[in-house]
Fold each of these.
Amino acid sequence: MVFESYGVEKYYDSFNESSTYLLRLMKYRLPETNEPNLGCDVHTDKSFITILHQNEVNGLEIKTQDGDWIGFDPTPSSFIVMAGDALLAWSNGRIHSAVHRVVMNGKKPRYSVGLFTYNEGIINIPEELADDQHPLQFKPFDHFGLLRFFVTAEGSTAECTVKAYCGVLNVC
Ligand SMILES: O=C(O)CCC(=O)C(=O)O
Ligand SMILES: [Fe+2]
């Protein structure tokens, strides 16, 4: 849908062939007395796309552009689809990766499952997504290189890891 909406579906098949997936199950136990209730610290995903599903215990919060944190109450059958940093770069800065965290406020443990998409090899920014109005903001990049960069001192402390890794201009 994303590729089609930008008219670049011709790149989809080869992109899809290089996609690889990580499925992760997560358990958030209840915080003990005097323990912070932060289940998962503030971050953006380094994936291309993340698909999340949770049990009935809420806790995921998304940061708005105004800096407010919003929680939500998905129906039990909902999946949450979030853009990751690789999609931010691929879309030439059009699709922002969601800044999010998990806060444990309930009385029950929280379980979630996440499917994270990554790509093998170099991700190229479609030339159709760059023009005079939208100058190229990211260089072609190695997605697994981005993951390796993220665990370095520079990558983990950068304001925007993907920008620090392969950015041309300051877009974050
Ligand atoms: O558990 C969740 O809902 C989100 C987990 C998450 O943000 C992550 O694993 O990157
Ligand atoms: Fe995340």
Amino acid sequence: MAIAETVNNKKQPKQGMLENVMKQFDAAASLVNLNPNIKKILAVTNNELIIHFPVRMDNGDVEIFKGYRVQHNNALGPYKGGLRYHPTIDIDAVKALAMWMTWKTSLAGLPYGGAKGGIQLDPSKYSNAELERITRRFAYALGENIGPEHDIPAPDVNTNAQTMAWIADTYMSTKAPSERSKNQHVVTGKPIGSGGLEGRDRATGFGVFLTIKYWAAHKNVSLKDKTFIVQGFGNVGYWAAHFLEKEGAKMVGVQDAFGSITNAEGISVENLFIHTKNNQGRIEGFPNTSTIDKEAFFGINCDIFIPAALGNQITKYNANDIKAFLIAEGANGPTTVEAEEMLLNKGVDIIPDILCNSGGVIGSYFEWLQNRNGELWELDEILIKLDKKLKEVFRKVLETSESKVLDLRSAAYVIAIERIEKAYIQRGIFP
Ligand SMILES: NC(=O)C1=CN([C@@H]2O[C@H](COP(=O)(O)OP(=O)(O)OC[C@H]3O[C@@H](n4cnc5c(N)ncnc54)[C@H](O)[C@@H]3O)[C@@H](O)[C@H]2O)C=CC1
Ligand SMILES: O=C(O)CCC(=O)C(=O)O
């Protein structure tokens, strides 16, 4: 609560993600009348690891980094969740993100629990060689706190297939030669050729698109010529926009960490993607668009808003500016509880993060299975399997939402929490 954000040049108190996820959990626990002992277990994390580790920089100096891995719950299987490299990462943020992973894997019916981790750093300040040493040193320090049947990291903000390859290689190098290849699935989201899954790169964004498509089919709405805005034009934002554009929708606004652009006539997703590749990942300077300020971005006229950046972006300070009738949460925790209430009251539908962006972890599950079984899956079959799995999860959320008269997030939480509760009750509550 101590941090502040600036809205319309005024400092406003900023709510932390942990506070947000706890409010969501408390509300859902009441809805399902959750067993009080299980509620106590789920309200806290199982393990929290903070590691300070030294790394030699290119100039010869040693810098100390702070890395995190939080394992929230493993009632349903090994801990699973991404690694984020970002200056705002702290223990509370990682706890919140780990909790969301527990609900997400449970909702998707996967044999996983929830975890998250990362390093508090701004990766743009380091060379590629430094990032490799930082990542390898972090992986080494994590040691047996991760493992292919225990806790399986994956990419998140500012990490990618290369990061995962360094972690897999470092982890495997600590094993006896005959054991190394059996440990490839210590991480998912690896490069193709190093055990990675065809299509894991687009799995999250494709899943975001699919959930929008299922929602549109349910509401009898055509996506053709619908307009959309995207906050965050990285892995998730780009791929979601790519598939929406292919479906005939038009991107009219984009925001990244460095600025916001708009054009009511449309912004080409593929041209912007090429532009960012040649511009250090940034959207700034893209031709035929106007630059607008951070807060004006939320008020752009559009039908669909895809937050695909950081948490707590849609707040009570900007919720009323939003024109979209649908928010599809590609990011984790982009909407505060207060903002959600305001949006629902004005009739905006929200496809919640734990459903909307679950294509990523479903893709990771496929990669894990592929590695475990020594198989190689093809892109077409993977995208079909992902569609089938996500469609079924979406159907269940919709059914619960209609039968219990709940918004989509509450319905998703009900399914997720009831599945975990059932596992504890079958086993005798305490793990
Ligand atoms: N990569 C994955 O498979 C999954 C990612 N997610 C979530 O999706 C979100 C985005 O992740 P990725 O696309 O992987 O990250 P990324 O690192 O590929 O891209 C992040 C994008 O967000 C922008 N951004 C960062 N701070 C911002 C700010 N303050 N305002 C506006 N834009 C900002 C960056 O400039 C960049 O364009 C995160 O919340 C992540 O937890 C969720 C499920 C899976
Ligand atoms: O693919 C995974 O294991 C998890 C990705 C992730 O961090 C997320 O879904 O938020």
Amino acid sequence: MADLKLSETRDLTRIERIGAHSHIRGLGLDSALEPRAVSEGMVGQTSARKAAGVILQMIKEGRIAGRAVLIAGQPGTGKTAIAMGMAKSLGLETPFAMISASEIFSLEMSKTEALMQSFRKAIGVRIKEETEVIEGEVVEVQIDRPAVAGAALKTGKLTMKTTEMEGVYDLGAKMIESLGKEKVQSGDVIAIDKPSGKVTKLGRSFSRSRDYDAIGPQVRFVQCPDGELQKRKEIVHCVTLHEIDVINSRTQGFLALFTGDTGEIRAEVREQIDTKVAEWREEGKAEIVPGVLFIDEVHMLDIECFSFLNRALENEMAPIVVVATNRGITTIRGTNYKSPHGIPIDLLDRLLIITTQPYTKDDIRKILDIRCQEEDVEMAEEAKALLTHIGVETSLRYAIHLITAAALACQKRKGKVVENEDITRVYNLFLDVKRSTQYLMEYQEQYMFSEASIGDGDEDGTNAMLS
Ligand SMILES: Nc1ncnc2c1ncn2[C@@H]1O[C@H](COP(=O)(O)OP(=O)(O)OP(=O)(O)O)[C@@H](O)[C@H]1O
């Protein structure tokens, strides 16, 4: 029974980990920004990857803040994959926020507020703080018990040492509580932040490594610090403007950061924060790190959002905005006008445009190979060739979806390697867009609100492919 439970949990976490883009680990470029054929999970699409690499370089050199990039191309040609590749190559220091344009239409906040929050999630502030710390090895913690229980506050003494000196500090009730919470005992190396009284346990002193107590697998041994007990230390915190907003918005509190339930943040709060951050920048205490905001399906934004974007990009702290769309010439939401990609011309004019190209058969084969590896699916060569053929005739995404389904069909017949029969089985079970449309054309009278007239749509009969 215990075994069963264990394997169930393992499977669940495994499923969660395999997202549509989990195989993408970067843009797959060499040091001269030339795309490698297959690298970091990326295949083909060389000129788009190269262009994305140049933009990445400009971002890293801080040269492109406030600009915007459009990745345009047919569905399933790797636009989101390239954005993910950029995010992975940026490193943890540069904030990256990702939204799909339709997410901003919610009842809880206005569209422009949702966009504003996304913008501020993509702007980092690196705050430098000098603080005084007491850092050393604990020699003794001595707590005096009050004569009558509860009569007076507890007091005590803390003796700490470095390799060069020893010092004794008086303890108040608050410090005693902090030390108790961290379970500090003699032999621990700790740091106390003097202004806030925050205690951090750095590890256990090497000199105590022979002690019989407190030695578990988690214990980290460290050297006893040298020099003075009290030191000035520079601490760097990296936060996003959105995090500062939420923490300072009186109605929310920082827990909202975890639930995502931040509600609207008042304009005054943001103004105050911007003024404060500007002061810190002047004093050399803080730096702005413009990150990347990726807006997928950008044609879903409406005219108000587009003018907000236009204005927001002018702000000196603006992040780099990368947008993607698979639309051609279409109506701009909220107007009767048509425009390329459904984006107003004035905004379009500011964008650096990267286009993605349809994949060749060879590229599709390689992407499917990578996905099979990512999903731990063993597939016969013949079956891979068939799946590639399906990918060419239908879409890459449909072929990717069939991998897991075919693996399940294979498991069901107790096979180890996915064969042609498994692919055929799931191909017949799940329709791709073309066959689904064809089916609708044939049976439309039996559906509700059907508006198409016979003869509309795509009639190339992909269905004949496997027969
Ligand atoms: N060049 C590539 N290398 C590796 N995997 C890729 C590549 N291009 C696309 N993929 C994978 O193919 C799938 C579909 O691609 P993706 O979602 O990026 O397409 P898209 O252009 O954003 O599509 P849409 O316009 O429908 O949003 C994803 O699982 C993606 O990770």
